[in-house]
Amino acid sequence: MKTLANVFREALKEKGIESFGVLSKRFRKSKSKLQDVAVEIITGKGAIFRVPEKTAVAWDLNGNRVEGSHYAYAPLCMMEKFEPVLMPEELRSKLPGWPYFIIDLYHWNKHTQKEKGKVCLQVSQSYGLLRDYFTGRELAVTWANDEFGRMFKGPIDRITPYAGPTAEFLRENDIDEVVLLDPWAEEVLSEKDFDVGAFIIGGIVDTGGNKKKTTPKIGEELEKAGIKVRRRKIVLRGDVIGVPDRINRILGIILKMMVEGKSMDEAVYEFQEPLHARWRLRKELPKRAIRYRVNGKTYRVVEKELFDEYSRWLKIRWEDFVKVLRELDLIALERKRIHRLNKLSSPRIINGKLYRVILLKKAAMLCYNC
Ligand SMILES: C[S@@+](CC[C@H](N)C(=O)[O-])C[C@H]1O[C@@H](n2cnc3c(N)ncnc32)[C@H](O)[C@@H]1O
User: How far is the CA of 291 from the centre of ligand 1 (A)?
Assistant: First the structure.
């Protein structure tokens, strides 16, 4: 999917412009000059002008520094002075019609004040993500009441807040089918879902654990109002555990997949934090544990080398691995030592579970060998 930077690049190319500069120090630190300048033009702050003297600083259409340009981004008030070559209306007319990414605040009143603050912060961070690819206006916040307006510290004039119900917003925008991001869904989000007019993320922060299964309710409300809802989940290797559940991270995962063509697992990895990775590790490690019974005592052992295996798809550091081992009361041993233990032990089923039993004498030998 095209980004705003792509649209801007094409618009400049069409006019035979190969580079552009700025007349001030703005944008010099920006990581994506094309994207950042294009956002300013789209929001009506400035335009591209032909300037009589080359600018001191300029970039080519890949964002690389070049020696100066006869085209410059400048505020619209420069209209009197310079000839405009790309105005906001023209760039706006070229936008491809990106979908809306709606943060649905239907459950706003179920939150504590602290949680409401977190919702607002995550909405702000979501705006930041969208303006890196599109314009930021694609971020709609529905059921946005006065309290949200007061608490939101982000650029409210650059997003699309909507005080009414989500279904009403959709109808006003001629959207009759949406994707609802829902961890409880049966189906996994896929490329085939990228054709809808809107993606809906629950504006829910779950610190108290009292909002279980609130996302499907958003879908039910929409369906009641006649909207077709595709409920889709995001998974990591087939499981929602380990997928970060913050609103902005869910949005980030969708954007990585949609715009950058990343696989779901790659996108999840990029937005994962060790906290989420540990959730998953807690589920994975017990599956790999071998039970040893030594002198009537049980030891659950996993291979130390599993750390390398898991760190390829979970964002864990060695300390996370050790933390989870401790929590689960597991012992990590090198593979070769496990092989030695296996040779000394014999399998036995105790209470329906497989154990490897080591006799006392052999255990002593093992300790000696260790
Ligand atoms: C913190 S979650 C809230 C989940 C809520 N407690 C529930 O049980 O339905 C915030 C939002 O992120 C999205 N989300 C979180 N994890 C997801 C996943 N694995 N797949 C799809 N969407 C997810 C959903 O839109 C959800 O409403």
Answer: 36
Q: Please write the tens of the pLDDT for every residue from 352-368.
A: 999 999 976 655 555 54
CB 244 within 8 A of CB 270: no
Domain that holds residue 49: 4-93
- Last-in-domain residue among 93, 117, 139: 93
Contact between 277 and 244 under an 8 Å Cβ cutoff? The reply is no
Q: CA nearest 247: which of 320, 140, 99?
A: 140
Specify whether 249 is located in the same domain as 109. yes
Q: Which residue has the tokens 């310079």?
A: 82
Residues 6+ apart with CB under 8 A from 64: none
**Residue 181 C-alpha to ligand 1 middle, in angstroms?**
7
| Cβ atoms 224, 172 nearer than 8 A | no
The answer to whether the Cα torsion of 131, 134, 139, 140 is positive or negative is positive
Count of CB atoms within 10 A of residue 275's CB?
10
Are residues 114 and 237 both part of a single domain?
Answer: yes
106 and 181 co-located in one domain? yes
Among residues 93, 110, 132, which one ends one of the domains? 93
Report whether 15 contacts 86 (CB < 8 A): yes
* pLDDT one-digit tens code per residue, 113-157: 999 999 999 999 999 999 999 999 999 999 999 999 999 999 999
Share of the chain above pLDDT 70, in %: 97
Q: How many CB atoms lie within 10 A of CB 222?
A: 22
Kindly list the protein residues whose Cβ atom lies closer than 6 A to any atom of ligand 1: 181-184, 201-202, 204, 206, 211-215, 233-234, 240, 243, 245, 247, 250
279 domain residue, yes or no: no
Q: Quick one: DSSP state of residue 99?
A: P
Q: Write out pLDDT tens, residues 340-355.
A: 999 999 999 999 999 9
Cβ neighbors of 313 (< 8 A, separation 6 or more) are 236, 237, 265, 269
